[in-house]
Amino acid sequence: MTRSAPPAHRYPDGAQDDHNRNPPRRRTTRRPERRTVAVLFLVPAVVVLAVLVVWPIVDTIWFSLTNSSGTRFVGLDNYATMVGTSETRRAIRNNMVWVLVAPTVVTVVGLILAVLADRIRFVTAFRMILFMPMAVSFLAAGVSWRLVYDASPDRGALNAALVAVHDMFEPPSPYAGMRPRGDLVLARTPSGDYQTVRPVDAGSVVALPLVGLASDKLPARAQPAGMPAPGEGLAGVVWLDFRPGGGTAGVVDPDERGLPGLRVEVLRGGTVVASTRTDDFGRFWLPRLTGGGYTVRLPHAAFAEPFAGVTWLGPALITPSVIVSYLWLWAGFAMLMIAAGLSGLPRQALEAARVDGATEWQVFRRVTVPLVRPVLLVVLVTLVINVLKIFDLVYVLAPDSSRGAATVVAVEMYRVSFGGGLNNGLASALSVLLFLLVLPAVAGNIRRQRREGP
Amino acid sequence: MTAPSPPRVPVLEPAGTAIVAPSRPSLPARVARRLVGVATYAFALAVAAFWLLPTFGLFVESLRDPKDIAASGWWTAFVRPGQLTLVNYQHLLANSDVLGSLWNTLLITVPATILMVAFGALAGYALAWLDFRGRQLLFLVVVALIVVPVQIAIIPDAKIFRALHIYGTTTAVVAFHVAFGLPFAVFLLRNYFLGIPTDLVEAARVDGGAELAIFVRVVLPMSRPAIAALAVYQFVWVWNDLLVALVFARPDSAPITYQLQAQMRTFSTNIDVIGPAAFLSMVVPLVVFFVLQRHFVKGALADSMRAG
User: What per-residue confidence (pLDDT) applies to B3?
Assistant: First the structure.
């Protein structure tokens, strides 16, 4: 808790009032009229707190021991339900993940950013940019991050970036989604490759018909498919066995075009003995093969669906995704808190370490971190309390399909009561759970106040 | 790279080692340092860009035609700026639900801030400067309440508001926000008031000033920084709240956050309404943030105990 000092008062003669900054414990005289005044000053706050905060705590604890409408005492049944129902159990488990992961990640990133900000010239702008999300509602943040996480690489920024990077290293195949026409010649193997059903011999010509691609999607260089003439070695053609009207299955019809640049492998006894690529007419020729018993294979890579990014908001990844957006919201806070701690560091200690030949990493690890450890602890505790009660972000960011997977205690508490469940008993039990979890922080605050306070 | 260069003075080494002056770093060392500096800046820029991206994306998206939004990402607006249009905002301004909810947000936020600061300051003054039995205990109770989660009170408070016939009104939302903002307000202001020189308050008392007059004329003006930080942060906090509104408001008294999430739930794809409305809902807190940044940051850092 930062406690800002008020400006020192200046008397008209310019003398500074310093001797009185820490007033004695009992500095006011006890007079009856002043007690009346005290009561009047305290009434609004005390009434509001007593009626809307303190009494409700007692009430909620009582509710948690009654049935859904609060009419019958049921003992600890609601707590049993809380631990026994899969939704609430999952909420508790997710909350544990949140508490273990989010505060640590945010604090570490905050520390890195604070150190980073210390070394650049546009510190103020940098800090402002990182702190700005604190002013944004969880709701608006949720909407923004929905756009980032959108599953479609055409609309979601993150997937668009991922796909762009992926395709740079591995361009998408033009033949994605193609399949054999019929199952007489080619069959699909468990790994997704297409290979000939019957063994083929050198000297023969294999015709490998594929369908499943609009003919205007073929590469521009694709030429009308041609059957190679039988000759030495193994030859064949891979083509789009379809034309308006259908064409004859398994036969190269006049308007049908070959599939250029497709990888063809020939196996014998399970190992690849030769491979090549088709030409612009879809033909391939492996002149050196002799004998028989070959299998021709078209590897699956060419037909796999193109990489479409990651479903960030799907049930599997929803919690990590929401935690990243939480990081975005709170890293600025951690950074500023830690930066305040860093600015209080003795510069000499850092410089002494550098002069002694310590690398920047050693300085960071051995000097900076130990010196700001108290601040790190404050940030960590703050974030743990914050994360325990996390509601809006999860509620807003998780689409309906992964709401169950994303749920946390506060969301579950809302869902089973005001959100439609109408079970005030169970909701109260969940609230009491949250309350119990923050109790250590309550105790800590009181202890600190008693120690530091006047 | 702004790392301070080593001072050009001999350094006293532990016994047994020679005294050496740090020499000018070698060329490779200087090149390495330069590269590290460039990398630092590149990294900082990347981080800043990443942090701006979500908000900026939402802003651009809110300026695009609904048809384009459905078909492509917001970044295509840089290739085809023809997509940019104000039509979404025109629709929004014709949407009475959204406008009404913005008005409700103001009706909730302003009183909640003023009442919290007023009640908090009065109580803080009593706890700091007036003597009465149980003062310390009362203050500790207030400190204990700072981190209490709102969930613990929403069900009983809903009952109370129903009994008072204010459930579903902005009054209920305001009352709840005041109640849960108060512990921190009292705590912060009481501690701040304690720092005011005793002589000043006592002198005013000797002059026969009434406590209320001392409070208004002496203590409040001197506490402007604390009050500003508190008020600015509470304002943004309440403006951004969703949970309390979901629980205590009804559609006709609902703030913008409530309205927006209702729209999101009903039609999860109509980003052409949600996008501009979400951005509009951010404008006020962002303006507050940029204009009153000092106070906001102070409030946010001080309020770390409440933290959610």
Answer: 44
Domain assignment of residue A416, yes or no: no
Q: In which residue are the tokens 């106040």 written? A: A449
Residues A292, A218, single domain; the answer is: yes
Buried b (16+ CB within 10 A) or exposed e, A413-441: bbbbbbeebebbbbbbbbbbbbbebbeeb
Tokens of A83: 């631990």
Q: B102-129: per-residue pLDDT in tens? A: 999 999 999 999 999 999 999 999 999 8
pLDDT value at position B149? 93
Higher pLDDT, A21 or A11: A21
Contacts of A10 (CB under 8 A, 6+ apart): A16, A17
Task: Give ipTM to 2 decimals.
Answer: 0.84
DSSP B9: S
For residue B193, the enclosing domain spans 91-305
CA distances (Å), B144 to each of A168, B150, B306, in order?
56, 14, 11
Taking a C-beta distance cutoff of 8 angstroms, is the pair B257, B109 a contact?
no
Encoded amino acid at A85, one letter: T
Q: What is the pTM of this model?
A: 0.81
**Domain co-membership, B277 together with B257:** yes
A88 with A95: CB under 8 angstroms? no
Print the domain residue range for A97.
Answer: 83-154+312-405
* A131 and A332 Cβ atoms separated by less than 8 Å: yes
Q: Which of residues 106-165 of A touch B (CB under 8 A)?
A: 113, 116-117, 119-122, 125-126, 128-141, 143-145, 147-148, 154-157, 160
Residues A92 and A147 in one domain: yes
Average pLDDT over every residue of B81-89 = 83
Domain count, chain A: 2
The pLDDT-based confidence of A321 (bands split at 50, 70, 90) is: very high
Residues B96 and B81 occupy one common structural domain: no
CB contact residues (below 8 A), chain B span 148-207, against chain A: 148-160, 175-176, 178-180, 182-183, 186, 191-192, 194-200, 202
Look at A79-83, A278-282, B264-268 and tell me which has the smallest mean pLDDT.
B264-268
Which of B85, B104, B132 is the endpoint of a domain? B85
Residue A296 domain flag: yes
